[in-house]
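Project standup — Tuesday

K.O.: blocked on the structure for the chain from last sprint. Re-posting the sequence here as requested.
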Amino acid sequence: MLIRIAIDGPAGSGKSTMAKIIANKLKINYLDSGALYRIIGYYCVKNNIDLEDKKSIKDILPQIKIDLKDHKYFLNDEEISEQIRNAESGNYASMVAKVPEVREKINQILRTMSQEMSTVIDGRDIGTVVIPDAEIKIFLTASVEERAKRRYDELSEKGKKVDYKSILEQIIFRDKADSSRSIAPLKPAEEAIKINTTNMDIEEVTKKIIEIIKEKNHGN
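H.V.: unblocked you, prediction finished:
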């Protein structure tokens, strides 16, 4: 049976971590929508495209080919999984996401993939726009301070020199950009089950989501 699980939420809410865990537990595919936006933002910056210039961003879209192979991301056949995981790439993603043609390109990639296989997809508008008929919709959130701490810890563990205050400011900036944009703003789908993970560890959140999936499947 084909099952599509949409996990939405703001920056640093743990949606990518949880999506990977749930996909692994259920032995289905994981699609990271945020990575696709980061790739386009990365390509624009690398090619000196002004991220405020929507026409230029639209014009270069045909040049961009994105592939996912063995859980690694490729831009025009070059693997860039690591290059798109810094804080700056997150800000680039929020900026290019304001361009309707960018969103449509990425949404079409995600829709096509999810029609062919059971998937867990995380992002900011998966349950509201990308796959509004997803069988299961989860919306994760946490306090701004907790989300900044998680991102700080994540980057520190990778050996990167990071500043907590800077990360906090970036997350606040992204929250504002994602929630106030005119196209597909960040918000829970009406039928999404909301989980505040501020005082929960990974095991607790995993257990909660698995319970939701089991209840939903049992109900069907």
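K.O.: great, moving the ticket to review. The longest helix spans residues 202-219. Strands lie at 4-8, 29-32, 66-69, 72-75, 78-79, 119-123, 136-141, 193-196.
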